[in-house]
Amino acid sequence: MKFLPLIAITATLAACANQPIPNGAQSVGTSQQPPAAVAQCIAKKWADKSQQQVVQQSVLANDQAVDVYVPGQQPPNGAAATVRPAWNANAKTWVGMRGAGGDASSDISACL
Question: Nearest to residue 39, comparing CAs of 103, 107, 87?
Fold first, then answer.
């Protein structure tokens, strides 16, 4: 019986270590900055470039995971940068892109 809590903790950690990429997202890169800072940078770049409103949607509390929608796109199915906590030890943040072209990815890369 003493091993049951250890097994539960091990299973939980294994599940976290293998976090899936969000549906339809292609990996753009990782950053040492926290997710909120990366999301804010992406939103500012897109808003300045397009002179349009950019929608940010928090997916986890305290902006630990954020979807930043491409200008003109709306939640929940619009093209967006998906900013998530990184699941490797070399970075704090993972960023992917779903539903948009290369121009958006180059703007994201500038924030990594």
Answer: 107
